[in-house]
Amino acid sequence: MKPAPLKAEVKKAFKKLLKQKGKQRHIEQLAVELHHEVFAVTDCLACANCCKSIPPIVTGQDARRIAKYLGMKEGDFADTYLRVDEDGDQVMKATPCPFLDEQNYCNIYEVRPKACAEYPHTDMRDFCKHASLHLRNAQLCPAAASIVNRIVEQCP
Length: 156
Known about the structure:
Number of strands: 2
Strand content: under 5%
Order of helices and strands: HHHHHEEHHH
Helix content: 40-55%
Shape: elongated
Distance between the termini: 29 Å
Number of helices: 8
Strand order of the largest sheet: 1-2
Structural class: mainly alpha
Radius of gyration: 17 Å
């Protein structure tokens, strides 16, 4: 269930909107409202593109929590499931995520990495400063795509 690619004019309008100082406060509030509206009707289990496509950052705190949950030593968890990416961040070695089952349920949902819990970051503070992140996520996440499209529609 990959979203339709954002149209070039939507991307351009979105970037332009987020740079307009006079509109940023309104867009920040609108993004949070839209996030809640969109996720109230979004079934992430029908999609799971994020879990299938993006290896999340796993902080040291995440690794300790997950390892404990799995009954593993932290070092064994890291050796089995983690790698260091090109940015120097610890991420899951495999995509799709090894904890994603056939019904798109996360087997470690209660202790999932912070990056997973916050994805697609459309309700984050300083929304306007992260246009490229939101546009990237909108390519994979139908909810993020809907939020980007609706911001452009509602902020002429």
